[in-house]
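Ops channel
N.P.: pipeline sanity check, posting one input/output pair.
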């Protein structure tokens, strides 16, 4: 292995991302605290070979996915490591409540935890108000944990990730009936991107998981689907570490609602699993992902959050290298791939400039946004999804939403204080997130195109994300699109790669149904091979590549890979080898209800 807002009455955007607040109050020594410890699996080289074989046609392992039990038996944590660590934790007064393929779930009195790991625990609060227990310094590992390469992110006081969904400036009007740039419902997108007819594919038999720190209202999902002329999808909630509640002022609820509506709109008969976590700290996200791969019920996972990858470097953590969390993400993603799970991650909405300058956190004024990619989109085990502004046909009185053009031009952002530090950052840019990783080398399949860098480049693919959020410099450029989101009993315009990502999850569900209901796992190898085939002037043209754009740092517009749109947007029927299928017609008709 080589080594991302919140609405207040929808009138103002609150903090985009912030360190976890610490009240300064200590935690009672006898308070019982539960947390996770990550451990490395065995035989990483053998597992890497196995993963490669799973995605290589002609090998015995090709397309043969592991069960969670098979993974644990073959590549899980070595029994002797578990025994040594468990014994040492017990001596420290801590109890192992559960073991899983990536580590341990542990409980103990706060005093014992503080003593075992040389920590000073404090009461903290996540960005969404959820209670957290945090520590200012990194834990000191016990000898057995250190020998096992263990990682503890549970008490990290930096909440790096954020939900990406934002409202579009100026509100929303339902359906593509008033302009050629939206607001789009999923059926508009399905026609524009050459999706298959509703009579041909619906995503039936596939399951899409959404992971987020806010619940949804069934009435909002029902309202959205009714606008499409479709039934309420099968929606199941799974609470992790207490889960999360619905709140009309919670960015997690706004995001989760958008994710469910976009994925269900594109694949209306796919089942939706909503995994609810209390906040977007790394500890909560990793616990949610561990539950998803352990349950093994989801075929496709849509993640519409992220944060500057550089946040894990020592420059942003008082000299401490926090990149071990990225190792944990990667191990879970890779295990999911081995089980056939496809992970789709939003590539970010600040274009190529996704990182505040480190001095900003020292409250130094005059700081700017810097170049940087978004984690976890940088993981080679996930597909990073960028976005465009979509332009479709428009005729008064017609529901037709056929493809006309796309652009990936972003807009400058107004100076803001995204972490509540007390000073403002300038130079920000709205646009499709992209850039090279600083931790992950370029995977073999990315060598099939020319990215211009030796590291993992993002994004991989794109769909409509829209533009002109509320914090963009007004007026925005022309042809900025958006999608409709039914939320808190009303329709709103939403923009961001948090719209394109769940929409693409629906596309993958259609793809898997087309193949007879089989999982696809990591789809990057297949997609990049299709790109190479298309470049050889083949008849199959699944990617629309000559889309002009600029995301504050990078440009697009040629037939080659760009760190704005990856390989481009998709022609869905071409992508899934379904050109012979009937196409989705005008929204509101039998082929595209």
């Amino acid at each position: 292995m080589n080594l991302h807002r919140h609405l207040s009455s929808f009138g103002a955007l609150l903090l985009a991302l912030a360190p976890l607040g610490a009240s300064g109050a200590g935690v009672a020594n006898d308070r019982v605290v539960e947390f996770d410890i990550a451990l490395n699996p065995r035989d990483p080289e053998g597992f890497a070979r196995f993963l490669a074989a799973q995605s290589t046609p002609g090998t015995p392992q090709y397309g043969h996915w592991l069960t969670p039990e098979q993974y644990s038996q073959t590549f899980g944590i070595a029994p002797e490591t578990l025994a040594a660590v468990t014994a040492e934790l017990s001596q420290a007064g801590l109890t192992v409540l559960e073991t899983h393929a990536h580590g341990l779930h542990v409980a103990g009195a706060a005093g014992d935890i503080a003593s075992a790991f040389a920590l000073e625990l404090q009461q903290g609060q996540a960005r969404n108000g959820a209670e957290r227990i945090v520590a200012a310094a990194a834990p000191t590992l016990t000898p057995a944990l250190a020998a096992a390469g263990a990682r503890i992110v549970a008490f990290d006081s930096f909440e790096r990730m954020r939900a990406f969904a934002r409202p579009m400036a100026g509100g929303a009007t339902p359906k593509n009936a008033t302009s050629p740039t939206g607001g789009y419902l999923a059926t508009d997108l399905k026609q524009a991107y050459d999706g298959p007819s509703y009579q041909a594919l619906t995503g039936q038999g596939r399951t899409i998981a959404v992971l987020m720190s806010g619940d949804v209202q069934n009435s909002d999902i029902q309202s959205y689907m009714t606008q499409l002329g479709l039934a309420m999808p099968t929606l199941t909630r799974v609470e992790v570490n207490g889960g999360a509640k619905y709140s009309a002022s919670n960015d997690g609820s706004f995001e989760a609602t958008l994710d469910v509506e976009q994925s269900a709109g594109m694949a209306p008969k796919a089942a939706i699993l909503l995994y609810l976590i209390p906040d977007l700290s790394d500890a909560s996200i990793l616990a949610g992902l561990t539950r998803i791969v352990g349950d093994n019920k989801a075929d496709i996972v849509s993640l519409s959050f992220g944060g500057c990858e550089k946040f894990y470097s020592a420059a942003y953590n008082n000299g401490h290298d926090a990149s071990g969390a990225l190792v944990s993400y990667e191990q879970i993603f890779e295990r999911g791939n081995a089980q056939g799970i496809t992970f789709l991650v939003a590539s970010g909405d600040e274009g190529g400039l996704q990182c505040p300058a480190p001095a900003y956190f020292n409250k130094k004024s005059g700081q700017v946004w810097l170049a940087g990619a978004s984690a976890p989109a940088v993981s080679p085990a996930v597909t990073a999804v960028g976005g465009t502004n979509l332009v479709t046909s428009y005729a008064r009185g017609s529901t037709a939403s056929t493809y006309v053009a796309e652009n990936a031009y972003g807009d400058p952002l107004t100076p803001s204080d995204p972490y509540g530090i007390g000073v403002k950052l300038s130079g920000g840019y709205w646009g499709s997130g992209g850039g090279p990783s600083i931790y992950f080398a370029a995977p073999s399949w990315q060598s099939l195109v020319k990215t211009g860098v030796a590291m993992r480049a993002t994004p991989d693919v794109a769909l409509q994300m829209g533009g002109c959020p509320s914090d963009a410099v007004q007026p925005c450029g022309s042809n900025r699109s958006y999608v409709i989101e039914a939320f808190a009993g009303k329709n709103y315009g939403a923009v961001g790669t948090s719209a394109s990502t769940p929409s693409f999850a629906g596309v993958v569900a259609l793809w898997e149904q087309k193949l007879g209901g089989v999982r696809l796992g990591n789809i990057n190898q297949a997609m990049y091979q299709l790109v190479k085939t298309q470049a050889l002037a083949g008849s199959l043209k699944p990617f629309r590549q000559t889309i002009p754009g600029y995301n504050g740092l990078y440009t697009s517009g040629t037939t080659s890979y760009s760190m704005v749109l990856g390989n481009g947007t998709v022609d869905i029927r071409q992508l899934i080898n379904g050109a012979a299928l009937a196409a989705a017609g005008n929204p509101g008709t039998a082929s595209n209800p």
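N.P.: looks fine end to end. The domain at 162-575 is CATH 3.40.50.200 (Rossmann fold).
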